[in-house]
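Late entry, evening session. Most of the bench is empty. Finally got around to the prediction I had been postponing all week. Sequence below, unchanged from the version circulated by S.P.
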Amino acid sequence: MNKKLSRKLLGRIIFVITGLAVGYSVLPAVWFILRLANVDWLNFPVTNTLLGALIFYLLSFIFLDPILSLLRKTEKMLLTISPTKLLFGSLFLLAGLILANVIAIPLYRINIFVVSTILPVVLMIVLGYLGFRVGTQTDDWRKLFKTRRGNDVENLIYDRKPDDNFHKYKILDTSVIIDGRIHDIVKTGFVEGVLLVPVFVVHELQLISDSADSLKRARGRRGLDILNDMKSDPDVKIENYDGDFDDLTEVDSKLLKLAKIIDGIVVTNDYNLSKVSEFQNVPVLNINQLANTLKPAVLPGEAMDVTVVKSGTERQQGVAYLEDGTMVVVEDGQFYLNKHITVVITSALQTAAGRMIFARPQHAQRGITSDEKTKKDDTKPKK
């Protein structure tokens, strides 16, 4: 039984239980108003209870779906509210209900149904709602209770809010989990916030790991292992999201909808998902795009102009620097100190300290080629 059917079944059970209570307590008054109180078989506790249950069971087919839809929207709205706001909202909601009951004490003594029964309920709804709305304004309450410290510059730093470019949740899709590079990227500290792994993504990984195809099975198990590694790593902030979207079938659509609801960023390696995210105005981080951006800007065989400024650590090496501070190690560059020469790149190396480029003088390369050609010509027999 899926989650949607279980919710409907639970809803109908609640409707039936409510009908039992309403039938037992309210129907006798209804029969009295309709002048049917003297009908013994009708105005009987068991009959009233069963009739109330039947009426509410039929009403469940009309009102249950709208109520469940409203509850889902409320749940999604609560997920977007921070725990601090929920705490203050609950406290002020309770305060509003207490205030409503205090105001309603004199109303209970007035022997008018509307004043003694309906008006107190309206008061509780209105004051409870107002209390919740006031309590959720936590930013103002923090400023009220916060102790001012330091100079004005420090106070501005403490009071500032994250701008629109900050998104707390980074929602991982299946492809980026299987890829595994996200774990190393997060450990470097370049990704802020919390990694969020929805339950439907984990379910897709499980389906892939149970596939009959050995390649897919290995990829799925790799993804599950990477998830467990990130979960056990204290440097990685990762959380689960147990919600699901029963009205959607594709995982990509669920990811985009979740990102819109919680104002998160989708992290993926899927090119098509990246394009769809951009079209739907959902922020996206593509790990492949990041890797392409970090590739060296120069390739072996390309030429560049540099000025050799000092000798290298190895024999006859010279060292030059690009405008961005990248070190260029020039072979035989010691002979060109403080000279502007053209070099040909032989290789590039990326290290933790930065990027290094290895090159040799362009005219030296040409000289070697011409010398080799001269030697070949000298070895030919002369006529």
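Two things to note before I forget:
The chain has three domains: 3-139, 169-293, 303-370.
DSSP finds 15 helices and ten strands in the chain.
Will write this up properly tomorrow.
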